[in-house]
Each structure stands twice: as C-alpha cells, then as structure tokens.
Amino acid sequence: MARLSRRSFIKWASMVGALGAYGCSANLSALREKSVKARIAVVGGGFAGASVAKYLKMLGQNLDVTLIEREAVYLSCPGSNEVIADLKRLDELRRDYDILGNSQGIRIVRAEINAIDADRRAVLLTDGSAVPYDRLIVAPGIDFRWEEVDGYDEKASLSVPHAWKAGPQTLLLQRQLRAMPNGGVVLITAPANPYRCPPGPYERASLIAHFLTRYKPRSKVLILDAKTRFSKQELFLHGWKELYPGMVEWISAEREGKIDRVDAESRVVFTEFNEYRADVLNVIPPQKAGKLAQSAGLTDESGWCPVDPRTFESTIVPGVHIVGDACTAPPMPKSAFAANSQAKVCAAAVIDLLQGHEPGPPSLINHCYSFLQPDYAISITGVYEYSPIEKQLTATSTGETPMDGDRRKEAEHARNWQKVIAAEAFG
Ligand SMILES: Cc1cc2nc3c(=O)[nH]c(=O)nc-3n(C[C@H](O)[C@H](O)[C@H](O)COP(=O)(O)OP(=O)(O)OC[C@H]3O[C@@H](n4cnc5c(N)ncnc54)[C@H](O)[C@@H]3O)c2cc1C
Predict the structure, then answer these.
(1) In this protein, which residues make up the domain named Flavocytochrome c sulphide dehydrogenase flavin-binding (predicted)?
(2) What does the pLDDT look like over 213-232, one tens digit per residue?
(3) 417/354 same-domain check
C-alpha cells in the first residue's frame, strides 16, 4: 500500500476541502446518455440513502426512484460534536428533503418501514401500504448492541446520553456539560471496532476539552477505550498535549480501558480493577447494522451486512444493495464521506445491471476531518480499489495530516467539506 507523501497529502486535502466529496471512477457522464426504466426503492434517507437516490436519478432520468425515510428532516452527525461543545446550533445540522423531492424528481415517502419482502419485491410500511420495486437499496444506518454493556440500555441513555445519533441526545449531552461543576470529570467510553465514525469519540473529547478550557478550566476529560489504538492517534495525542495539557487522558484497553458495567443512576463506570465516577458520562455503545437490515436477513454473524463492493449488492439476498454504515466494506471506515462514495458506485452499478452490463471495478475514496478546536483540524484519507479475485477492497494509498501540517487550513477545509457533503447528498 502506498503512503501519500506530505506534499501529495496537502494537495489532496485542499482539493477535498474545496470541492467536497469525490465518488468513484465510474464514467458518470457516459452512463447518463443511456436511458433505463425501472422502479427503485431506497430505504433510509441519511447520507447514504439520499446520495444513492440522487445519483440514480442523475444517471438514469427515466428511473422511478422512491426514497423512504421515517423523519421529516435529517440531522447530520458530522458537526454534532461542535453542537455538544457549544460551537454550533442544532438547527445548523438540519438537512431537508425538499430539493431531492422537488428538483431532483425523487418521490419522498415519509414512513416507518416495517419489513422488506424480497420475494414479492416490496417494502412494507407500518401503515399497511407497500412500495413495490425492481431493485432495492437499503441504507438504515446503525443500531446499538445494548446487550453488550451491562447496565446501559435505551432507557439509561435518556439520562446518560450516547449522542451517537444527532438530535435530542446531542442536546442532552450539551446541557449536561453546561451544568457540570468546574473541576468535574467528563467520562467518555469508546467502543471496539467497527463502529460509526472511528475518530468521532476523540474529536468529541477534544471539543469538550475546548469547551471546558473556556468555561470550567479545572475539569478533566477521561476516555475509557475498548481498543488499544485509534484513528489519527498520534495527531490527537500531539494536539491534546499542545492545546489541553493535562486535561485529556486516554486509557486504552491494555490499561483497563474496557468497561465491565455502568451504573447509569450514579454515573459510575466499572472496569476490571477500578471504578470511575463521572460528572458527565457519555457511553458510546458497540454497534451493528440498523434494525431493518437485521430483520430483513441482510446481516451475518458480525451484525453488519456483507456486500460485494463492486456493486454493493448483498452477498446474502440477491437484488438488494446495502450502502453506508450498515454495510461492511473493509477496509473502508463508516463515515458520511464513505457512504456518499459507496452510493455513487452503487448507483452506477445498478444502472449497469439494469442495462445488462457488467459493472467495472470501482475505486472509492474516504477523507475524514476531525476538529480539535475551531481553528485546528486534522484529517485522514484513503483510496480503495476493487480486487475482482477476492471481491474485496484494498487500500491502495493512505495519508494523514503531517505533524507539521497547517491545522488552521485543515479547519477551513473541514468547514467547507461539511457544507459540500450536505449539498452532495441532499442538494
Ligand atoms: C459524532 C459524530 C461525528 C461524525 N462526524 C463525521 C465526519 O466529520 N465526517 C464523516 O464523513 N462522517 C462523520 N460521522 C459519521 C456519519 O454520520 C455516518 O457515517 C453517516 O451518517 C452514515 O450514513 P447512513 O446513511 O449510512 O446512516 P444514517 O445517517 O444513520 O441514515 C440512516 C437513515 O435511515 C433511516 N431509517 C432507519 N431505519 C428506518 C426505518 N425502519 N424506516 C424509515 N427510516 C429508517 C433513519 O431515520 C436515518 O435517517 C460522524 C458520526 C458521529 C456520530
């Protein structure tokens, strides 16, 4: 695997920041010339579902595309750590479906999906109606493995937030930080891989430290981690030393970071040898594919949906594609950038398949920014190529912000990227 040089990384990062999200190497304009008719149902209107619906319609104007989503508006997780740290308002994370519905010609159905009937090729809604399809794309995001953290479940999350889905949980954690005493402890528990947004817990710890530095400077952020390593680790550790000396402590799985039990009422976390009392407790539980993917029989023993990343078609249920966090496409991480990149590959492949063509081997991209404070950000990038023999992706080049990189410039790129990914998926 090639490592991007410092110079190439800087050039690459500024391109991504300025232009936003890249997708795949499919020849999109060539596909657009051809017209194909079919009914496509897209289930879940997050970054993955919205992007795939949009690109299907862009590439195949005669397609009848229906996007089914339970919420009236989408709240973006990228940017939600900034809301927690009082740097953004929650309504800034709001993404509407109006443009997709009115200008892109996608039929938006606001409904809770009950089940998928793959034999009858229909999506069954809780109101008793059904949406028939010729091809189905499933993008329900994640669900939590509540059973894996003793003492922590959905009810406990009403007082001890996970804040791993943007919305009321984000505001609950924000309120608790505002109310905590100066000199208190914020305790974050980070799950084992794989989970949504690998650098997310560490960006959160950083921005909370930024908040504490301003308002409660005698306080501390403690991370108990079920892992021994984490994404952009050296860059985060370096940044914490530089920006928040003595304030952020990371305890890895090797040093009893793995938690045994949570007492949500008293906000105490138990590890093998110790107990940690928190003023604000943020438990990020282990994860799996969204409930719908499980009930539709699209998941394997890992809890995620295996796919052939050439088309993102399920390797369990033919004719059904899964994109975004719910699918497993290693070594791609679970991110909004990756979801958008997968959506483009999937849309192009679905059109190829409908036309009776063999989809070509795709290339995919991921680029993830993390803020350590508003004018200090770092990023990681990866390019993934499809190997037809293994039917898997391989990271062909990767890179990270260089140690002497310009963090202020990266923060600018990160802010641009947040705007562009929103327009990419929902615009
Ligand atoms: C704190 C945090 C920070 C992050 N920061 C970044 C970042 O900086 N960059 C980045 O690239 N990624 C980031 N991410 C990751 C990113 O949010 C996810 O990877 C992305 O949201 C995945 O998109 P998705 O469409 O697969 O899932 P989701 O965004 O969860 O969308 C799934 C949709 O399906 C709908 N749905 C599910 N089941 C049903 C049903 N039965 N009926 C109807 N609708 C249903 C849901 O309502 C939801 O709208 C972050 C995540 C977190 C938690």
Answers:
(1) 361-426
(2) 999 999 999 999 999 999 99
(3) yes
How far, in Å, CA of 390 to CA of 113, rounded? 34
- Tell me: do 134 and 160 sit in the same domain: no
**CA distance to 103, 337, 356, per residue, from 98 (Å):** 8, 22, 33
Residues spanned by the domain of 389: 2-70+111-144+287-426
Residue 86 lies inside a defined structural domain of this protein: no
Q: How far is the CA of 24 from the centre of ligand 1 (A)?
A: 20
- Looking at the 3D structure of the chain, how many domains does it have? 2
| Tokens encoding 65 | 């595309």
Whether residue 79 is contained in a domain is answered as no
Tell whether 233 and 297 lie within a shared domain. Answer: no
Question: Residue 43 in 3-state DSSP?
Answer: strand
Tally DSSP H helices, then E strands, for the chain: 11, 26
424, exposed or middle or buried, with CB in 10 Å at 0-12, 13-18, 19+? buried
DSSP track, 308-323: ETTTTEESSSTTEEE-
With H, G, I as helix, E, B as strand and everything else as coil, classify residue 162: coil
> What CATH code is carried by the domain that includes residue 14?
3.50.50.60
At 180, is the pLDDT very low, low, confident or very high (cuts 50, 70, 90)?
Answer: very high
In a domain, 103, yes or no: no
Ligand 1 geometric centre to CA of 80 (Å): 12
User: 47-59 and 407-426 are packed helices; what angle lies between their axes, rounded to 10 degrees?
Assistant: 60
Centre of ligand 1 from the C-alpha of residue 75, in Å: 9
Distance, in Å, from the CA atom of 42 to the CA atom of 350, rounded to the nearest integer, reads: 12
Asked whether residue 106 is assigned to any structural domain, the reply reads: no
Clarify whether residues 235 and 135 are in a common domain.
no
pLDDT digits (tens, 9 = 90+) for 9-38: 666 555 554 444 444 444 454 454 457 899
CB contact at 8 A, 161 and 271: no
**What's 72's DSSP letter?**
S
